[in-house]
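Consider this pair:
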Amino acid sequence: MEDITFPKLKDMDDYKKVCRFAKDNVYIFQRKFDGVCCMVDIFPNGEVILWGRNFLKDGSRSTLTNNFPEIVEYFKTCEPVRMRILGELVCFNGQEIEKFSNIQPRCTRKYGIEELAEESPATFLAFDIQIYRGIDSTLNCYDARRKILQIIATDFPTDARFKVIPSYLFTEEKEALLLELKEKKFEGVVIKARAKRDQYWKYKPTITEDVIWFGEYNEGTGKNAGQVGSMVCYQYINGELVEIANVGGLTVSARGHFTHMAKGGKVSRDNPIVLEVEAMSRGERTKKGKIGKLRHPRYSRIRLDKAPEQCTREE
């Protein structure tokens, strides 16, 4: 079997640069969906495998085949030719808004899979193709691969289980997409160079939150063993102290500083400090009403001008 390679997206945090790219038709814009990246392998014998991005402890790549039977069954209805399609698995709610809190548990469920598939059916949103009818498509530029996806979109059965992510080429379309992003209608955009094989960026606006650190931390691994790996932080939400984030993104000097503070008792329940962190978004509430944590929080700075009692939020 051919090597499985997921593309790497570089982070772009300069909004002005994103706007410049929007005016240049050398670049395609696509909406970034809040789901789980997945590779679909289709074989001439009718076999379908869903590959995940992660690796297992034994070094083998994780599979999602058993977790998403409705996606597997859909691709088994397609023409049984050799293809490999890259996309995003998402679960939509009734307003066609994806919910990460619905897709995440489906990736690890080991029982009740059929019931969960009926309760939160998934959709595979294709955005790239690596093998088409047995031919390696990665040798082509992205624009050529996008045109192949458009052909597939017309050949495949019309179904809620499979869609091709729209690509926006013209300036007016891309600026309208950025306006929707500014209004927080979705989480980010992916920018792709049309004439290149693998030149991609992702842009996600972040939120800023002030959180309380009492000195609790998760220990680092590898070269960071014995030091702070991530800081367990809190906020007062509706008047209740809630664990809200495991804050990472520490520089070498910051990690050493916080490790010294935690182990030396310089920060504690009686002497907390306030940190400013950047995050992708606030976590969604679970179905049981539990408040979700901040998504991908990264340390920004210490707030000496703010008291822990001011780290409040109303939900």
User: Anything to note?
Assistant: The mean pLDDT is 90.
